[in-house]
Predict the structure.
Amino acid sequence: MSNSTVYRLIAILAIIIVAIYIVIPNSPGIRLGGAEKTFVTRLGLDLVGGVQALLEADLPPNTPIEAGAMSAAAGVVENRVNGLGLTEAVVQQAGERRIVVELPGETDPEKALATIRQTALLEFVDMSNLSLEEAVNLNNTTIKTDFGLSPEAISETQPITGTTPISPTFHTVMTGADLRTVQVQRNPQSGRFEIAFQLSSNGAKIFADFTSAHIGQILAIVIDKRVISTPRIDAAITGGQGVISGDFDSESANNLAIQLRYGSLPVPLKVVEVRTVGPTLGQDSLNRSLRAGLIGFAIVILFMGLYYRLPGIAAVLAILIYALVTFAIFRFIPVTLTLPGIAGLMLSTGSALDANILIFERIKEELRAGKTLRQSVELGWRRAWPSIRDSNIATLITSGILFWFGSTYGATIVKGFSITLFLGVAVSLFTALVVTRGFIEVIVAYFKSTNFARWFGI
């Protein structure tokens, strides 16, 4: 056996060991310094149940949407659902005005969707013309602000009294765009939940200048035009740090922090359709898929063993390694498996078998022509390679086109299918060129019989 074959077998063994480490249940993962990588098996909502929601821009149909606004909104939505702990969520833009959100395993969709569609516009509002009592009376009420306008463009606001029901417009000193970090904490004195924030350098300067000039006056904190709190400026705040206090519990404080941490939506969103898949239906789909896969794989093993004999057994071992490596990649990335994704995986398994069949048929042709086993194997690999290369490249290109189609038009079914098909075909090429070839070279080195008809199915 040549040195190249030995090195190939060592590489195959190393890959098998790594793949097994990744796919074993409760794998501890990888820790390198401060970085940590865990391995999880993600299943789509059609396998475990969950919610699929279709969000649409909450604007009149004839209102133009700025280029890139919906894409940015999709990014904000994805950050928000991930911040809620829905790490298996799938968020994709569908056309120019819609976003598809999939929440596998979600049992309380209303809570998640409520957080997703809020705009969460944070404003620090100047209420220096009000007394503390007047400002406190505005807590939990909706006000008008001049966000987007200069102070000079706003008419002077009037004091609020109990007998004069007016709606003044207050000046927005700064918005949440200048937030750098946001986190929930508990006040050590009152025990209440509050939201601590750190401002950018630009925001810190604006904050310092305003608080220095308005000591003893009110700077209200407003979320989506609703007054959350009305603190009085007791001293200049120059460190760029502050706290949002209010009537928060743990859940409401966390939800608000998520909205602020991951930005405001560029456009308001509304839910136009919600589809729920029960966990029982999802589990039934998973069981049926696994059963169909096992039956199909058993038939493949039987066919390869009976028709191709010794090379067929080598191909079956290679396909088992292919399945192990592919599943390990899915857990490492991780890839969310759906029913279409499993279909793509099964199709790529067929591609892996197709490469082996092309090679074995070429070897059989050379053996029938009277060549030695070693010559037949070398010629079989050389002549089968162009067909294997071209067919797999065509499949990879098709997968890329399907992925683009699914991403552009929000067809998550097509996108999941294309991802698993692409990865599966790439791994199948590796198993055909490295694993199967390594096993065949071992057969060539140690096979001494000349009864090719019996052992190679000629």
